[in-house]
Amino acid sequence: MAVPELTPEQRAAALEKAAAARRARAETKQLLQDGTLHFDEVLAQAKDDPMIGGMKVKAVLVSLPGLGKVKSARLMEELGIAENRRLRGLGERQKEALLKALSG
């Protein structure tokens, strides 16, 4: 696979865009951990925000209070969600099942 040649300006812009995405994702995960942001709100944001939509479901679930790596992996397996699935790639039934499982 060929690597595209970028000008220094293009490279700097790409690096800044990647850094902004990492900051947005880290902030979202921190808000989830604090309980300031709820999972349903993250799903709603994922529709419009490509940075949030690009987050892996597993990373978001692990950020929720009370869910660790094992519980989130078990939940995803029970619901038939692939380990590498991103928020924007979730189907409506998967979203509903996740919301139902997390609500009670």
Description:
The chain has 104 residues and is mostly helical. It contains six helices and no strands. The protein has helices spanning 8-34, 39-48, 50-53, 57-63, 69-79, 92-103. The longest helix has 27 residues, at 8-34. The termini are far apart. The model has no long low-confidence stretch (mean pLDDT 90).
Give the secondary structure arrangement, pairings included.
Elements lengths: L7 H27 L4 H10 L1 H4 L3 H7 L5 H11 L12 H12 L1
Which percent bin holds the helix content?
55-70%
Residues in β-strands, percent: under 5%
Compute the separation of the termini in Å.
Answer: 47 Å
Shape: elongated
| Element-by-element helix/strand order | HHHHHH
Which runs of at least 5 residues are low in confidence (pLDDT < 50)? none
- Structural class by helix and strand composition: mainly alpha
Calculate Rg over CA atoms: 16 Å
How many beta-strand runs? 0
Main sheet? none
Arithmetic mean pLDDT:
90
Number of H- or I-type helical stretches: 6
Question: Characteristics of this structure?
Answer:
6 helices; 104 residues; single chain; mainly alpha; 68% helix
